[in-house]
């Protein structure tokens, strides 16, 4: 089955997604209101029955195209998240679900459950938008990810290509500045969530829909939280693929399976390679001249966008997690506490500071030699 193109082109991929968002293979358009009602009434038997009714028969499932399979997984995700919020393992409640999830996994080359991509970029906009709750806060949270994902994916592809180019000169500086502009979408996503998603609603309602479920011999598969965004792949190429930190490596590799095959391939190509930051730092230390200094400055400027995303995002996460008035749970959808956010910030800052120091040293050397 064809999944994604090997010469992955993000604008074309986005265009192709419109086909997916238009599909409704499980007739959820007509059932969503009912599902929300059952959810509000905590009527878990009715939710399980509706899920059972929505499952495709094996014959029908075997004829599903890639696009239909993605749309079906997306829509099953809403039943799954709602059951889990009511402390029910979906596959235990409806055993027939497991076969469907495993078939959809093999047809789409993604995990045997919905991911952040299903929940956001493959979710239709407007009145057909699928949600767990129907709450405006949830719709706005989906939108905040929709704002960020396309540019993040484009930035990853562009950064991958930049590694093949000469790492100095006007063209290099121009691409660094374009990457910085693209990554601004991550900042905008956080600003959108801060303005439109109540921390109280997130902490006491929304986050429980993103809990892990058990599929395929009781393996845990995490729900579609924003943490699945491949921001860590951008980090990997920019500063972290040659940084040995067991906690961050486990974090990156834990979330990698929830990304598209093309993104996973990019990640593994950089395994044990030098990051862009290290390469630029090395050329600066070997030859401190105006060109290598300007290249280092371009990378430092690009890195500021990581800080502009991560500092406000950490504040947002912490403010939501202090609102938890009933459940006393401190972990996010991926099982991490907000402390992981501080850890990533410290690693990132250590690498940026190190390049900053090399730049100051190189400047001194360059100007004393003149
Ligand atoms: C109410 C809003 C939000 C809250 C409470 C929140 C909370 C969290 C928490 C607790 C984590 C730690 C990992 C885990 O979940 O297990 C995390 C990670 C992450 N979140 Fe959010 N988040 C929110 C919105 C967003 C938005 C809007 C974006 C992007 C546009 C985003 C992107 C990320 C990313 C990329 C990570 C991985 C860590 C990193 O790279 O720094 N989050 N978030």
Could you characterize what this model shows?
- Mean pLDDT is 95; it is low at 1-5.
- The protein is 66% helix and 2% strand.
- A hairpin with a 3-residue loop joins strand 1 (213-215) and strand 2 (219-221).
- Helix 3 packs antiparallel against helix 5.
- It starts with 9 loop residues before the first helix and ends with a helix.
- It is mainly α.
- A two-stranded antiparallel ribbon has the order 1-2.
- The chain folds into 2 domains: 10-128, Methane Monooxygenase Hydroxylase, Chain G, domain 1, CATH 1.20.58.1320; 136-189 and 228-369, Up-down Bundle (Methane Monooxygenase Hydroxylase, Chain G, domain 1), CATH 1.20.58.480.
- Protoporphyrin IX containing FE binds next to helix 9, helix 10, helix 12, helix 16 and helix 17.
Give the secondary structure arrangement, pairings included.
Blueprint: H1 10-22, H2 28-40, H3 44-54, H4 58-62, H5 66-85, H6 90-93, H7 96-108, H8 116-119, H9 136-162, H10 170-196, H11 199-204, E1 213-215, E2 219-221, H12 231-240, H13 246-255, H14 261-269, H15 276-286, H16 290-321, H17 339-369
Antiparallel strand pairs: 1-2
CATH topology of the largest domain: Methane Monooxygenase Hydroxylase, Chain G, domain 1
Order of adjacent strands in the largest pleated sheet: 1-2
CATH architecture grouping of the largest domain: Up-down Bundle
SSE-based structural type: mainly alpha
By DSSP (H or I, 4+ residues per run), the number of helices equals 17
Number of domains: 2
Task: List the ligand species.
Answer: protoporphyrin IX containing FE
Low-pLDDT windows of residues: 1-5
Instruction: Report the biggest beta sheet as strand number plus sense, adding barrel if it closes.
Output: 2 strands, antiparallel
Could you estimate the helical fraction of the residues in percent?
Answer: 55-70%
Find the count of extended strands (DSSP E, 2+ residues). Answer: 2
Mean model confidence by pLDDT:
95
* Portion in beta strands: under 5%
CATH class of the largest domain: Mainly Alpha
């Amino acid at each position: 089955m064809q999944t994604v193109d090997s010469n992955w082109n993000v604008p074309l991929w986005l265009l192709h997604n419109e086909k997916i968002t238009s599909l409704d293979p499980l007739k959820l358009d007509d059932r969503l209101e009912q599902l929300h009602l059952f959810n509000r009434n905590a009527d878990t038997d009715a939710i399980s029955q509706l899920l059972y009714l929505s499952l495709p028969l094996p014959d029908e499932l075997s004829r599903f195209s890639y696009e239909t399979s993605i749309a079906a997984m997306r829509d099953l995700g809403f039943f799954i998240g709602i059951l889990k919020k009511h402390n029910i393992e979906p596959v235990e409640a409806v055993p027939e679900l497991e076969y469907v999830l495993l078939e959809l996994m093999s047809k789409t080359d993604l995990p045997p459950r919905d991911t952040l991509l299903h929940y956001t970029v493959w979710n239709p906009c407007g009145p057909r938008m699928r949600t767990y709750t129907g709450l405006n806060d949830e719709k706005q949270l989906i939108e905040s990810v929709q704002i960020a994902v396309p540019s993040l994916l484009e930035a990853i592809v562009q950064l991958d290509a930049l590694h093949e180019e000469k790492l100095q000169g006007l063209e290099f500086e121009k691409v660094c500045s374009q990457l910085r502009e693209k990554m601004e979408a991550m900042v905008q996503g956080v600003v959108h969530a801060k303005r439109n998603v109540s921390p109280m609603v997130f902490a006491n309602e929304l986050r429980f829909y993103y809990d892990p479920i058990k599929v395929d011999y009781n393996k845990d598969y995490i729900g579609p939280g924003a943490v699945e965004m491949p921001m860590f792949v951008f980090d990997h190429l920019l500063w972290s693929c040659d940084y040995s930190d067991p906690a961050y490596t486990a974090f990156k590799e834990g979330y990698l399976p929830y990304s598209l095959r093309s993104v996973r391939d990019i990640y593994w190509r950089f395994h044990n390679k030098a990051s862009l930051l290290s390469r630029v730092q090395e050329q600066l230390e070997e030859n401190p001249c105006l060109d290598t200094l300007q290249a280092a400055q371009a990378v430092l400027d690009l890195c500021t966008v990581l800080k502009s995303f991560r500092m406000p995002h950490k504040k947002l996460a912490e403010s939501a997690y202090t609102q938890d008035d009933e459940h006393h749970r401190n972990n996010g959808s991926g099982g991490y506490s907000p402390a992981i956010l501080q850890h990533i910030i410290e690693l990132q800052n250590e690498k940026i500071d190190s390049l900053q120091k090399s730049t100051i040293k190189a400047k001194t050397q360059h100007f004393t030699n003149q």
